[in-house]
Amino acid sequence: MKKSYFLLIVTAALLGGCASEDHPGYIWYPDMFTSIAWEPLDEAPFGSDSAMRFYPPDGVIPYGSEQITDGYYQYTIPNTPEGYEQARAIKNPLPKTEEVIAKGKQLYEIYCAPCHGTTGEGNGTVVEIGGFPPPPTYYQDRIYALSDGQIFHVITYGKNLMGAFNYQLSPRERWEVVHYIRHLQEQRLKKEGKSLADYQQTHQIDTLKTL
Ligand code: HEC
């Protein structure tokens, strides 16, 4: 007798689990089977000030961004000829310190010097021994007249034969390299009794036409 009761219960339990297309059978954990579809910005039912919009924890940096000074730095200017012009207005967010210049020099010598040469004359190793067409020297009107933002833009996206460096160099590192290139130019101009700022003011308008 006891045995047949037992069999009955087991059979009922097993049959209860049988499902067909119209009948899902007995659901043991309904919460998991039919979970509530919360909308992203709904009020959440738990806690008075809780909403479905959860805020990221402090210190989280959005993808593709970097904390350079205050807030997040994200370069959104597109890789187009108009973008190159727009970049003219972008200023270097990094303060120019000796440390930054030293870091820029280190990165420059790894990533840029093989083509541009350690002094920026456009005579790097690949040019001297590899037959690569020489890049423009940094010591000419057109490059003096570029803004820091335009140099950053070119490092980010590349230009013609020069490849993009946005994968190898973070935004902060690119700005460090920009400071270093400016430092090289300023040192050269200083020897001639000039300064980059004066140079940019007098040459900017003429050079804009030929960019
Ligand atoms: C593979 C060789 C190569 C490497 C590596 C390279 N460049 Fe260049 N770069 C070039 C060439 C070639 C040009 C000329 C592009 C043109 O105007 O056609 C150029 C142009 C430039 C210009 C002038 C941009 C303009 O608007 O006319 C700057 C500034 C510059 N490079 C900076 C850098 C920096 C900084 C790095 C390192 C992060 C770097 N380059 C790495 C080959 C290179």
Shape: elongated
State the order of secondary-structure elements, H for helix, E for strand. Answer: HHEEHHHHHHHH
Structural class from helices and strands?
mainly alpha
Estimate the mean pLDDT confidence. Answer: 83
**Main sheet properties:** 2 strands, antiparallel
Strand residues, percent: under 5%
Residue stretches low in confidence (pLDDT < 50, at least 5 long) are: 205-211
Strand order of the largest sheet: 1-2
Q: Please report the total strand number as a whole number.
A: 2
Q: Cα distance, first to last residue?
A: 98 Å
Provide a quick synopsis of the model.
It contains 10 helices and 2 strands. The protein has helices spanning 2-16, 30-33, 81-86, 98-111, 113-116, 125-128, 141-144, 148-157, 171-191, 196-210, and strands at residues 66-67, 72-73.
Task: Walk me through what this model shows.
The chain is built from 10 helices and 2 strands, in the order H-H-E-E-H-H-H-H-H-H-H-H. 17% of the residues are buried. It has 211 residues and is an all-alpha fold. The protein has helices at residues 2-16, 30-33, 81-86, 98-111, 113-116, 125-128, 141-144, 148-157, 171-191, 196-210, and strands at residues 66-67, 72-73. Strand 1 and strand 2 (72-73) form a beta hairpin. It has a domain at 75-210: Orthogonal Bundle (Cytochrome Bc1 Complex, Chain D, domain 2), CATH 1.10.760.10. It has a two-stranded antiparallel ribbon with strand order 1-2. The longest helix is centred in the C-terminal third of the chain and has 21 residues, at 171-191. The structure holds heme C. Heme C is lined by residues 111-112, 114-116, 135-136, 143, 146, 150-151, 154-155, 159-162, 165, 177, 181.
